[in-house]
């Protein structure tokens, strides 16, 4: 049993034709965040601190759909949400509707640590973050030209991106990488302590106030004594399938292995093209299944295994 | 296989000494809502319509913690949330942070039926409800004197009416924590009342659930509980429909509603076994209850609190209306 870590920068219809100027920075970011997380685990940081650290880094990276670089609502604004959960104690924290706080995952952590609640939304969450001195900025900080363009394309297509079946493919529009959603990280230490964290700007052109799977405990984020899971993809599909909870439930109630449980949920419980996840088990296993064209992902285990990828590897 | 319906008006530390003027109106409301639901099922209404109808009625009743009669936030305001789910299609809708809409469950239904989303919160949810012409009122409509009093008591006790710090819920409750739970209920004793909900199944095995609440007394502004979290307070699939109540944070951690269905599917437990296990073993004592029906028309209403306002009926004639455990339990 050793430590293990996995992280993702979103699953979606990522075309193999993705241009190097869009692919290379993200691969570099995945590599960088993985190394950050590995170093922290090697220094015996608690997995809760590891996942928060890694997700903060992913939030700050403008090319992932979280924090800076979040996709825009139909009003052209940013509404961010995040979630964090500790497998051993099952304490958790979640936030939705943040507009000025630089790191949503840290607000979620504070909700978990400093309040009797689990989940705070919108103005209440913003006020709480300010009371606790978290870094806030002008909302324009989070908005990138790429996302202004994505919103424009989505409106021209007159549909929410990641809608039904063929609409999914049609809606990807010119750049093709418009399906990117969510960042997340899961980690386990040598003692079997598990943690997960997920963060996102949500869905391009979403209705103001729309909440996705990320802050819904059991849907996009979940950890208990069996495993830690962070999911990504079409939020509504991930919610219906209670993806993160089901991976753990299959392990506990049906005795499946981490890999079997995760593969089953992604393969059989959500529609094709809608989801991916990263997960680690208490015994240090790691899995990163997805049923989309690709998923920005990276993982490492103490025994030396490392993987960084976007599309399925040849064995998959 | 016949139809079945169950509904609740909240689980909590409801003392047996509850005065008749507080008990009788609620029992009457449970009876009335049960009859509404039964009549609808007998008229072959779809379970989604049945649960929405019943929950709207419970929301309108000022003595349950939903809609009018919702408990107050720490600012003395009302923030309502609700959720609805269809077992067959697994379509669902949820809302949080409503302040002027009379029936939160109907907003959740509209989110499910009229948007590509599942969950809308706060100002976005309010705007959506208005755009669709749902009935709205001044926020003061929802505030009752009892709830102003409850908030006052909670502030005097200087704690949220649940355990103030997050304790390791994987461990059994220690005696001193348990006494904090009882202490936190305050003078009136019925301050733990939370949430209303309804589950129904028709003869064809179509399942539906809906839950609605004002949340937790003295909650932080913006606090979201288990009710709108699919899989926590509300869940339905082809196996069963579940609506949970109690301490929201505990229900979320234990993914109560999802786990009942998962135990049936993944472990082959019966509805009653699954529900009893979740309420008995997966949430701390004194924190939760639920109502659930299965595709084959079974019904169960377990709770690990002092009481749970509840009612159920099945097509073969079984009826139950209660608050405290029956003698067999």
TrEMBL record, chain A:
CDD domains from the UniProt entry: Asparaginase_2
Residues holding substrate: 210-213, 232-235
Substrates-to-products reaction catalysed: Cleavage of a beta-linked Asp residue from the N-terminus of a polypeptide
InterPro entries given in the database record: Ntn_hydrolases_N, Peptidase_T2
This protein's UniProt keywords: Autocatalytic cleavage, Hydrolase, Protease
A Pfam family reported for this protein in Swiss-Prot or TrEMBL: Asparaginase_2
Gene3D superfamilies noted in UniProt: (Glycosyl)asparaginase
Gene Ontology terms describing biological process: proteolysis
Record protein name field: beta-aspartyl-peptidase
Active site, renumbered: 182 (nucleophile)
Subunit note: Heterotetramer of two alpha and two beta chains arranged as a dimer of alpha/beta heterodimers.
Record-annotated site: Cleavage: 181-182
Gene Ontology terms, MF aspect: asparaginase activity; beta-aspartyl-peptidase activity
TrEMBL record, chain B:
Pfam families for this protein: Asparaginase_2
Site (Cleavage): 194-195
Catalyzed reactions per annotation: Cleavage of a beta-linked Asp residue from the N-terminus of a polypeptide
Enzyme class, UniProt record, top EC level: hydrolase
Alphabetical GO biological process terms: proteolysis
InterPro entries: Ntn_hydrolases_N, Peptidase_T2
UniProt keyword annotation of Protease present: yes
Binding positions (substrate): 223-226, 245-248
UniProt keyword list: Autocatalytic cleavage, Hydrolase, Protease
Active site residues per record: 195 (nucleophile)
Known EC number: 3.4.19.5
Record GO terms (molecular function): asparaginase activity; beta-aspartyl-peptidase activity
Presence of keyword Protease: yes
Quaternary structure, from the entry: Heterotetramer of two alpha and two beta chains arranged as a dimer of alpha/beta heterodimers.
Name the record gives this protein: beta-aspartyl-peptidase
């Amino acid at each position: 049993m050793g430590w293990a870590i996995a992280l993702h920068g979103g699953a979606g219809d990522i075309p193999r034709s993705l241009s190097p100027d869009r692919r290379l920075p993200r691969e570099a970011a995945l590599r960088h965040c993985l190394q950050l997380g590995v170093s922290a685990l090697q220094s015996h940081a608690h997995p809760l601190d590891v996942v928060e650290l890694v997700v903060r880094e992913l939030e700050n990276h403008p090319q992932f759909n979280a924090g800076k670089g979040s996709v825009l609502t139909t009003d052209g604004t940013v509404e961010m949400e995040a979630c964090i959960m500790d497998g051993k104690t099952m304490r958790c924290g979640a936030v939705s509707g943040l507009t000025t706080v630089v790191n949503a995952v840290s607000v979620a952590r504070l909700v978990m640590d400093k309040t009797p609640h689990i989940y705070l939304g919108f103005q209440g969450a913003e006020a709480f973050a300010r009371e606790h001195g978290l870094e806030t900025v002008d909302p324009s900080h989070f908005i990138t030209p790429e996302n202004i363009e994505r919103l424009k394309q989505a409106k021209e297509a007159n549909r929410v991106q990641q809608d039904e079946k063929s609409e999914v493919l049609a809606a990807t529009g010119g750049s093709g990488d418009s399906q990117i959603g969510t960042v997340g990280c899961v980690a386990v230490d040598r003692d079997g302590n598990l943690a997960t964290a997920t963060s996102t700007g949500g869905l391009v052109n979403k209705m103001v106030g729309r909440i996705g799977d990320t802050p819904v405990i059991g849907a996009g984020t979940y950890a208990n004594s069996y495993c830690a899971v962070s999911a990504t993809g079409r939020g509504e599909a991930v919610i219906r399938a209670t993806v993160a909870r089901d991976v753990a439930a299959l392990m506990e109630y049906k005795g499946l292995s981490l890999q079997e449980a995760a593969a089953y949920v992604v393969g059989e419980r959500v529609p094709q093209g809608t989801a991916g996840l990263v997960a680690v088990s208490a015994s240090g296993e790691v899995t990163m299944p997805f049923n989309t064209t690709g998923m920005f992902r990276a993982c490492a285990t103490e025994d030396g295994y490392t993987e960084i990828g976007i599309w399925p590897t040849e064995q998959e």
